[in-house]
Amino acid sequence: MSDTLDLARIDATLLQELMDKVSDFGSTGDGGVDRPALTDDHRAARDWFAGEMSARGYEVLVDDIGNLYGRIALAGPDAPLVMIGSHLDSQPRGGRFDGAYGVVAALAAVETWRRELAARGQAPGCNFVIVDWMNEEGARFQPSLLGSSVFAGGVSRDFALARTDREGRSVADELRRTGYMGADPAPQPDCYLEIHIEGDSKMEQAGARIAPFVRHWGALKLRIEVTGEQNHTGPTPMEDRHDAVLGAAHIIAKVRELADTAPDTLYTSVARVDISPNSPNIVPGKAVLFCELRAPEPEMLEWSEAELRAALPGLAQKAAVTAGIVSVDRRPAGKFDSRLVTLAEAAADAFGYPRMRLDTIGGHDAVAVNAILPAIVVAVPSVNGVIHRNDEYTSPEDLAAGGDVLVEMIRRIDTAKGSLDLAAEGA
Q1: Where do the annotations place Zn(2+) 2 binding (predicted)?
Q2: For the chain, what percent of residues have pLDDT higher than 70?
Q3: What is the pTM of this model?
């Protein structure tokens, strides 16, 4: 355990104040929030957060894909740059902690460490930048992790700007409308830290309060188009119907069957179906399925994709329709930086917080960023494992514990002047 005199606990009052305030934007009145990317409520949350950073002396920047940054130079222009953050957009009728906690905790942690530097008379070794990534959730615009993927070079800016929502409004249009089509150069950090709620019940069951994610699962996000023939639901004989939704139902059942064939190594879903013309008196002419396949190993994703592709013609034939995959977004599996895992564990141990290691099955911006620089996601427990729902909840004590760990990681990296090797060795 580290010398307790070196430890600095996060300003829990500031963290809670920020958490309470950000939860007002898009509040659904039942504990949840509804602020998908580039909606008016999302813009209001970002405007407020930009103001909070500016008032504390941060240089507020917005890049050309709408990522929001607050940069503060404490150690001079050539010092290493540590990036910390997450995202302020939410799922429709989602939870108030997912993403937002990581953003406000980043500000509270850096502010805590600035105060500690002054109190100790210690010279800073690093500069810091807080980030709110654009469209992490992928609820309104697909794919998810859009802003961080452009930042990391995983997708092109032109591709991202052209994504549209259900009403046909593009990312480019909505960035301009909300005032977040920036022109500032994106910062070039040396590492990235993200704190997040777990979104599962493993930590709660194990009695753990801190869990660095060691691996991130890969994901395939497929859009499947089922084409039938629009007709009247009354007089059209059953044998003459070409029902796109019936074809979709066969495909959805197959997607679940794949997961049942490979328990614990493949997660699947079809969580959105767009039906046309979506009238109760019309045999549907078209259905678009948003399908996800997630696995920790690339071989499992390759197998599941091949199985689904091979099954599509026969499944479609059952409903006298056609079906095809029209787009695929691929996110490879990988590992987070082992030095940052060690740092997170050492920080937890320093405070005596029980810990464990986990994989993340869900995506995080750190997954995209991890492709180009050392990155980590550190989790705190979710009560009953709930996420993406109004009753998503993490206690103030666990939020503060995660903040303590974040501050301690910052302290060790800063003291090592940005060297993750030295910071990890000192752990």
Answers
A1: 98, 137, 388
A2: 99
A3: 0.90
